[in-house]
Amino acid sequence: MRHLVVESQAGQISAELLRRGVAQDAIVYAVVDVVAPDVPMAAIAKAGGGFDWLDQEPELYSDDDLVKPAG
Hints:
mainly alpha
């Protein structure tokens, strides 16, 4: 097994692997660290889709559930 560390833009990873001699039909397992300091974490979570299932969940509370102050 060969270990490579590739620092590349997402769209260029395949080309970088080919450039380093990895065969095009090779099976590659990858661990990806995304470095995107200019992107807010909420935008990353939304793009990832991990919370999309919440759109199908019923709303449990509404403004009517707010505690009204006495007086």
